Amino acid sequence: MTAPFVPDAAPYAPPRRLRIEHTTGFAYAGEVGASYNEARMLPNSTETQFVLSSQLDIQPASSVNYYADYFGTRVATFDVLAVHDALEITARSLVEVRSHPLVFSEVSWDALAREASRSIATVEMLGQSARTAPHPEVAALARAIAAQHDNPARAAHAIALAIGEAVEYTQGITGVHSTGAEAWTARKGVCQDITHITLGALREVGIPARYVSGYLHPDPDAEVGVATPGESHAWVEWFAGDWQGFDPTNRIEIGDRHVLVGRGRDYNDVPPLRGVYAGPFKGELHVKVTITREA
Questions:
Q1: What is the CATH number of the domain that holds 239?
Q2: If the chain, 295 residues long, is cut into consecutive pieces of 10 residues, what is the mean pLDDT of each piece?
Q3: How many angstroms separate the Cα of 14 from the Cα of each of 17, 72, 96, 295?
Q4: What is the CATH classification number for the domain harbouring 287?
């Protein structure tokens, strides 16, 4: 097999150290008798990031159990059995992050189809979900781009760029339950929407692709010690000989500002907080993320 092509490498840079504080929770409309919850808010160490410390603080206080879910995401489960009218979870992490530049493996479409069919990890990332099922225009766009490339890795990159360029990042247009097809119709959405559209396009042409949740420091030139308001972020990873990540919302490679928390088929597999409770139906969700560059 021909050696993979690696784009021109940037000069070596030491890892960036990021401190992340993510607070979320509910203010209920009345007293809640009990709640049962799971959080996906703490990162794991990977080949490009190393978790120096992480902890989860819960109010009202509760014991926490941890496990890795089916896709390898770190999950914290906890029950609050005392009567309460609010729930607040704060995840604090300190992570060293290195850039993960794209590598375009020289694999053919036929070879990718054979290799992708041999592993559950790739087969499961080929099927569409309600969130990723592509709009007919997206499906046609993906097929047209794929037809221009003999290399599926380069086709994946071109598709992700095209989606990112076509959809304007706009808050408030879509909701947490919106689908990629709905966001495409509006040509507007947030990172979750743009990621779902990209996943649908890649899977349409036979490229396994998965949803990645995490954080992105919004300032590439952030000063050390300056706390910056942030938010949860999402991007894609595709398989074309090996797994590669790309941020279609910002049309950039995965760098030392991206901190990975979880992977899945779509957002449904990696929500930061999920649970059930016994009490008033209405409740108000609040979220606050702060990211500080430490080194």
A1: 3.10.620.30
A2: 44 85 93 93 96 96 95 96 94 96 94 96 97 98 98 98 98 93 97 98 98 97 96 97 97 97 98 91 88 96
A3: 9, 27, 9, 9
A4: 2.60.40.2250
